Amino acid sequence: MLGGSLMMMTGLLIVAGVSCSLNVSDSCQMELARLQEQERLLKDQLQQQELLLHRLQLLNQAGNRNHAQTHQVQDTQLTDCSQVFTAGFNLSGLYRIQPSSSPSALTVYCDMTEGGGWTVVQRRLNGSETFNRSWSEYKDGFGDMTAEFWLGNEILHHITTQGNYSLKINLEDFDDQQRYAEYKNLRVADEKDHYRLSFGAFEGTAGDALSGGHLAAESEWASHQGMKFSTYDQDNDNYRGNCAQEDRGGWWFNKCHSAHLNGVYYPRGHYSSLTDDGVVWYPWRGWWYSLKTTVMKLRPTDYQESI
Ligand SMILES: *[C@@H]1O[C@H](CO)[C@@H](O)[C@H](O)[C@H]1NC(C)=O
Ligand SMILES: *[C@@H]1O[C@H](CO)[C@@H](O)[C@H](O)[C@H]1NC(C)=O
Ligand SMILES: *[C@@H]1O[C@H](CO)[C@@H](O)[C@H](O)[C@H]1NC(C)=O
Ligand SMILES: *[C@@H]1O[C@H](CO)[C@@H](O)[C@H](O)[C@H]1NC(C)=O
Ligand SMILES: *[C@@H]1O[C@H](CO)[C@@H](O)[C@H](O)[C@H]1NC(C)=O
Ligand SMILES: [Ca+2]
């Protein structure tokens, strides 16, 4: 009902605006100011009611373990999880967002830990999903957002072209050691450009695998900077063969990789195979160790952590 009166108010404002421009009298200007003030008040009320609704929804779900339900009631104009966090939602879980260039809203998993506001792009944790998937599956995303999944290249493109985004990668091995890698200004191009990857400065404890490990000679063939995305059915890599087919997962392959977080899940870490097709972050555990847990997540680079 508040929404309805807000719309009516906006209609009145437009009418008032038109007649004022025809007759610039004081009384008319005063009426306009009064209406604007009323509009502002109604907007405030509307926003507060929405927040209240959201809070009630959260409370309702507090004892509910089923995270498959979204926490949010409706898509407002939240374009990523940092805005969801700023709007007052500090519980990790599923929320609706709509990046500014995205044609429709979608559900994403928001990680509200580590300062909050992270839109999760990928997760591996137990090998329940296969990551040997087609171009169209990587484009649209697959898996279960509360477990293993790939968010989707199309939405990755829409999120990262909204501004400067940082990608944080959390890694864990089977000895429960944890490392991270963070890249500033990460961008994923559109499908016409094969979802090409670019990124800025590295920071972290896991080593800079996306730039090709730490040896300059390696980065020529192992760097993922500027690489197009490849899948078994769309070979855009720099290798005479097909990296995605050999390494059984879609990724920004070069010739082929020094990081491949969409590789085959080996449940014991060390593995042997014809090729380095595990869940690999080369500078940390090398090509022949497949990680236990990975999370890739995005947040605006200039995000200010509160508290
Ligand atoms: C402008 O409005 C005033 C008072 O509202 C009225 O007296 C005046 O005739 C109007 N002028 C025109 C040009 O419509
Ligand atoms: C989350 O928000 C609620 C109310 O909005 C607040 O009471 C609580 O302290 C917050 N929790 C954290 C960890 O910030
Ligand atoms: C993997 O983890 C998810 C989420 O915890 C769980 O639902 C699923 O059953 C697990 N699958 C396997 C194969 O362990
Ligand atoms: C990957 O998936 C494709 C299509 O389902 C299949 O043809 C291929 O054999 C799979 N590759 C491996 C190594 O599992
Ligand atoms: C992103 O940040 C870089 C440097 O940190 C800056 O040069 C660039 O202009 C920024 N781009 C946008 C779109 O804000
Ligand atoms: Ca090739």
Automatic annotation (TrEMBL):
It is found in: Secreted. One of its GO terms (biological process) is fibrinolysis. The keyword Repeat does not apply. SUPFAM superfamilies: Fibrinogen C-terminal domain-like. GO terms for cellular component: fibrinogen complex. Residues 25-52 form a coiled coil. Keywords: Coiled coil, Disulfide bond, Glycoprotein, Secreted, Signal. InterPro entries: FIB_ANG-like (IPR037579), Fibrinogen-like_C (IPR036056), Fibrinogen_a/b/g_C_1 (IPR014716), Fibrinogen_a/b/g_C_dom (IPR002181), Fibrinogen_CS (IPR020837). Residues 72-302 form the Fibrinogen C-terminal domain. It comes from the Eukaryota. Its main location: secreted. GO terms for molecular function: extracellular matrix structural constituent; protein-macromolecule adaptor activity. PROSITE patterns: FIBRINOGEN_C_1, FIBRINOGEN_C_2. Residues 1-20 form the signal peptide. This is Fibrinogen-like protein 1. It comes from Austrofundulus limnaeus (Annual killifish).
